[in-house]
């Protein structure tokens, strides 16, 4: 979960703002508590490279400590989200690597999904056009996903002779859309239409392409204005309770909620309700 570190806290310097961050392999924008990551190689439908994988992993890890960033949007430039690993810059070189090197690569790609899931801020995907391979896994790792009627999502690993088990797909996808539907997509590699994705629960909603990023950003801003410590607790519990029994989950939530009841945000919400005004949360 996310802890608020105030300016007077001696640890504050360790929780540096990410607003001035200068990304090298994608675009980064920060405004009003929302950080936006834009995959920006539109001429190739925004594929990933070894470098962009690593930088994305490192940024999501660093965002754990960025108390100024309350929510994150992930999107792609040029009408597409992400076409997956670059055929020439990743797949080609992989065919010449030996097992230890290949394992380093597959662990790095998995570390990106881990970093997204461990990042305490809510992460909103604005997913247009092509969303394939590793791009589909980045979308799947987001907490909320918004698509357009043009979105086509494909876990196409089998199309290149690989298992559908990649970057946590066999664990995450069945939990989102169900075992049977996930099995079909992971075995066949076929594209899931936007309409299927919405009906199956992959997408929270669909918006026209020209309104998609604005709609996703609006959701992120609303989340950023909410109780960020409590949001982090919610994300933590959504992840941890996958491996718990019902009794364990109920007890874990009792403890989690008791912790949240000690926050200033809980008091702020009560005081605002009593005064019939909208609460202004501080994240502490």
UniProtKB/TrEMBL annotation:
In the UniProt record, the signal sequence range is none
Q: What domain of life? A: Bacteria
Q: Name one Pfam family in it.
A: ECH_1
What species does this protein belong to? Variovorax paradoxus
Known PANTHER family for this protein? EG:BACN32G11.4 PROTEIN (PTHR43459:SF1), ENOYL-COA HYDRATASE (PTHR43459)
Q: GO molecular function, one example? A: catalytic activity
Q: InterPro entries from the entry?
A: ClpP/crotonase-like_dom_sf (IPR029045), Enoyl-CoA_hyd/isom_CS (IPR018376), Enoyl-CoA_hydra/iso (IPR001753), Enoyl-CoA_hydra_C (IPR014748)
Which family does the record assign?
A: Belongs to the enoyl-CoA hydratase/isomerase family.
- State the protein's name: Enoyl-CoA hydratase/carnithine racemase
